[in-house]
Specification:
2 helices; four-stranded antiparallel sheet; about 40% strand; about 220 residues
């Protein structure tokens, strides 16, 4: 249903609250520039509209949410047109769950404050290419290959296309990294035998579960 919400009687709710959704679902792992996960209320379509929602709400390739924060991995900036496609740098980040207020209606009516996208609490551009992510108290777990691509802002191609593709496909190693939720620093890192399934990681009862593309589900922790 994307950004549409209904009450228990099947009536559409006009005052939609922020929630996690994606314009093309959560199961697709295609690295398509015009699709992403978002924690917000709406997203526009069209030639240029695809980029607008990400300027006002936390958005990325993959997200994890707790009571007061949103963690994600995605482009450092999302904008339409050729400029947006050149901005192909990625980062791992933390943002406050509630966007920062930037203005208030002055027409005398009771209206909510219009809100803008808050700056990240922290941002790490030396991240893995995150294919799986899960959030635990004080720690963010991410899994994927290293980002080996080198680009300049005015080019639409990698300077090292062969190495960048090999890294993206997991041919230069795959890792499970433990990151601090407070500052984004790396707490630990472990090599993995193969690429994880997209969004294929979960944590429960002191254990971490990770599904990989070779059909194996690995478990760490516990007794």
């Amino acid at each position: 249903m994307k950004h549409v919400q209904f009450d228990r009687n099947g009536r559409q709710v006009e005052d939609v609250s922020p929630h996690l959704f994606s314009v093309d679902g959560f199961l697709g792992e295609e690295w398509f520039v015009r699709s992403y996960w978002i924690y917000g209320t709406t997203v526009a379509a069209g030639w240029g509209g695809w980029a607008n929602a990400a300027a006002s709400a936390p958005a990325g390739r993959i997200l994890a949410i707790c009571e007061d924060a949103v963690f994600g991995y995605g482009r450092t900036s999302i904008s339409s047109g050729p400029t947006g496609h050149r901005a192909d740098a990625y980062h791992l980040w933390r943002r406050d769950r509630l966007p920062a207020p930037v203005g208030e209606a002055t027409d005398g009516k009771q209206r909510r404050k219009e809100r803008g996208l808050a700056e990240p609490v922290w941002s790490n551009q030396d991240s893995l290419i995150v294919r799986a992510m899960t959030l635990t108290p004080g720690k963010l777990l991410i899994a994927g290959p290293p980002d080996l691509g080198r680009k300049t802002a005015d080019l639409l191609a990698f300077e090292n296309p062969d190495e960048a593709l090999a890294g993206f496909l997991g041919e230069r190693g795959v890792y499970l990294r433990v990151v601090s939720t407070e500052d984004g620093s790396t707490l630990a890192e472990y090599p993995l035998p193969t690429m994880p399934v997209f969004d294929g990681m979960a944590a429960a009862e002191g254990r971490v579960f990770l599904a990989s593309r070779d059909g194996v589900v690995a478990c760490w922790g516990g007794k």
